Amino acid sequence: MKSSPRCYKCGGSPHPKRECPANNAKCHSCGKNGHYQRVCGQSKLLIRVVFLHSKS
Ligand SMILES: [Zn+2]
Ligand SMILES: [Zn+2]
Fold first, then answer.
1. Closest CA to 41 of 26, 30, 54, 25
2. Tell me: the pLDDT tens digits for 3-52?
3. Could you tell me the pTM of the whole model?
4. Does the keyword Ligase apply (predicted)?
5. From ligand 1's centre to the CA of 6, what distance in Å?
């Protein structure tokens, strides 16, 4: 079972990074540029960061 590839920045069908419509978009969830709110938090890296912070 392999999941269908998606753009991790906009959540749409895969495309070159420079063609991603989310490049100039600002996330309303975390406030950072370069991705949409709907894909925010889906990154394993972000999950890892949250985990480290919650460890305290
Ligand atoms: Zn994209
Ligand atoms: Zn975000």
1. 30
2. 778 998 999 999 999 999 999 999 999 999 999 999 998 755 555 555 56
3. 0.64
4. no
5. 8
